[in-house]
Amino acid sequence: MKGLVTMTQTRLTNRPRKRRWPKILLAIGLTLIILIGLGVAFFPQVNNGLRTLAGGNTPADNVVKDQIVQRIDAAKNGNPDTDATLDQVASTLKATKMSTIVAAAQSQTKAADLLQSAASLSSTQAKAAAQVLFSESQLQPLREALAKGDFYGAYKAYKTVSETGAAQALKAAIVNEQ
């Protein structure tokens, strides 16, 4: 009997152990990589969903606004009138919910209302600017990207608009309606 116990113990100690942890860690790692990949691929949709659920700005919205405000601050040139206007634009942007901006990019009347309230434009100026935003073909990619909440696409479209000078039509519409 003593030899039998020793033989059983020997068999148990010599048996190869099953290594489950590397398989579990590999499964967890692959799951995380897939989730991160899906989050990156569908970021605008995820961000829009979070904005809808939270009812306010998401962290990504705040980052985008901060970047825009930094660019506005960089445009200051020391002229008190210009700098005051740029400060007003920056503070208005910070106070406006991103969901309001996205809704304005989807509807011409909402865009006119937002321009009138946020940019202190008259009703006719705001309507003229909204008309240009929705009719100018060069501004359409920018507006559509904003309407989808796709900030990277909006940034690329903004770069194109600023390079082609399509924003001049918008400025002209506002000035002509004064």
Structure description:
By secondary structure, this protein is mostly helical. It is built from eleven helices and no strands. 81% of the residues lie in helices and 0% in strands. α4 (59-74) runs antiparallel to α5 (80-95), α6 packs across α7 (108-118) and α6 (98-106) packs across α9. The longest helix is centred in the first third of the chain and has 21 residues, at 21-41. It starts with a helix and ends with a helix.
- The helix content is over 70%
Oligomeric state, counting identical vs distinct chains: single chain
Strand content: under 5%
Q: Span between N and C termini? A: 107 Å
Structural class of the secondary structure composition? mainly alpha
Shape: elongated
The number of distinct β-strands equals 0
Compute the gyration radius: what is it? 28 Å
Average pLDDT rating: 81
Please outline the major beta sheet. Answer: none
Low-pLDDT ranges? none
Q: Could you state the order of secondary-structure elements as H and E?
A: HHHHHHHHHHH
Helix segment tally: 11
